[in-house]
């Protein structure tokens, strides 16, 4: 039954609805970054282009590739999508059989070209380039220390501290210098580091960010997600282990570590939202995991309804799961327009609201007169959910029941996800009932943490089944010392 206190006239007005309209049109959490690397393939730059294109959802602000032929480094990076940054001539100019590439998202004010990766430097030992996904909790502290010792930084990116630590190391052996640098770092990170003709691949000791290795003929390929391997035709070998360091050079690939594995804590939001549904994370397919989340939601909070719909794209799998579990038909009640790009021209409130509809539309014929279950992956500020619920109501939905495939998101992330400060996270200050009212839903349920962990299906035995759940319960795997979690890529 619809809730008594529902104010059905609140479609496109009201203070809450207008909050945040001048910021991003949608306040979804931002993916952090994506990395792709190749060692030993004559078409390394072209493969990187296709690999990064498959990882585009992880960062849409800038893209870059650095290659080497064993003698020189060649690189190009720029603001924009992968297909905008590179053309055929550019890729041909990136010579050599080894490459690292990067796609980046960053917070506003930090989106300068100088922070686009790979970062490339010359140092006394030769050339070095780095591409990373994640965030260092202690980057500011290390940076301060290095600046006091005379280091001059060229970017505001956390990643540059790693370059300085390697370059300043007293270790004769470059492998030892890299290990020494990595041991100083606290946070979630997946690194591809090119030093002259050697490629280093490292994952933080908790394994917070995903990183996988594959084979393409005799070449090794590395990527943030397995979907990139499908695109380039590579075979998945395995996930990089927490604390592991791979050294790839003309003698082949050597498996080493720079730190013992600590509490395994892969990011739960990768399973819920960030990674593509066709990727596998630690051998768990994300579409299947999300379907199970939808099934769990149905078990925890069934509601009698006429149709189930998912907010595209990340929640479609879960909506299918909810529909399968309940027998309520799954329908495409919401459609995402894939060709909007960025909306720069929004001169009036009315047109801004059109801007929202440019990105997402409700399908009137599907939802009109229906009781709709709307599945989404998370509620951040609440503004997006309110807009979508109102969009469904405006298209004639009789009731809108919101089901979320994550527990309430109430704490910032310190490991590479761009999260608003705690004050802006609606779940940090409002109860579930207050959030329901704020988003104008007839009912609202967040998947329980136990339900989530079970749905993802990682083996039992480890703390939180080997996952980080910090943004839901403040149970962070490392020390954290900063209110503002953001992407440090
Ligand atoms: S705090 Fe949340 S978003 Fe950040 S790594 Fe942990 S689970 Fe992922």
Automatic annotation (TrEMBL):
Reported EC number(s) for this entry are 2.4.2.14
The pathway this protein participates in, as annotated, is:
Purine metabolism; IMP biosynthesis via de novo pathway; N(1)-(5-phospho-D-ribosyl)glycinamide from 5-phospho-alpha-D-ribose 1-diphosphate: step 1/2
Catalytic machinery residues = 33 (nucleophile)
The UniProt entry, under HAMAP family, shows:
PurF
Q: What this chain does, per the record?
A: Catalyzes the formation of phosphoribosylamine from phosphoribosylpyrophosphate (PRPP) and glutamine.
- What name does the UniProt record give this protein? Amidophosphoribosyltransferase
Q: Which GO terms describe its molecular function?
A: amidophosphoribosyltransferase activity
Q: Give the cofactor note text.
A: Binds 1 [4Fe-4S] cluster per subunit. Binds 1 Mg(2+) ion per subunit.
User: Which SUPFAM superfamilies has this protein been placed in?
Assistant: N-terminal nucleophile aminohydrolases (Ntn hydrolases), PRTase-like
Please give the InterPro entries that the UniProt record associates with this protein.
Answer: GATase_2_dom, Ntn_hydrolases_N, PRTase-like, PRTase_dom, PurF, PurF_N
Q: Which superkingdom, per the lineage?
A: Bacteria
Q: What PROSITE patterns does the record tag this protein with?
A: GATASE_TYPE_2
Catalytic activity as recorded in UniProt? 5-phospho-beta-D-ribosylamine + L-glutamate + diphosphate = 5-phospho-alpha-D-ribose 1-diphosphate + L-glutamine + H2O
Cofactor(s) needed by this chain: [4Fe-4S] cluster; Mg(2+)
- Which residues make up the binding site for [4Fe-4S] cluster? 267, 413, 468, 471
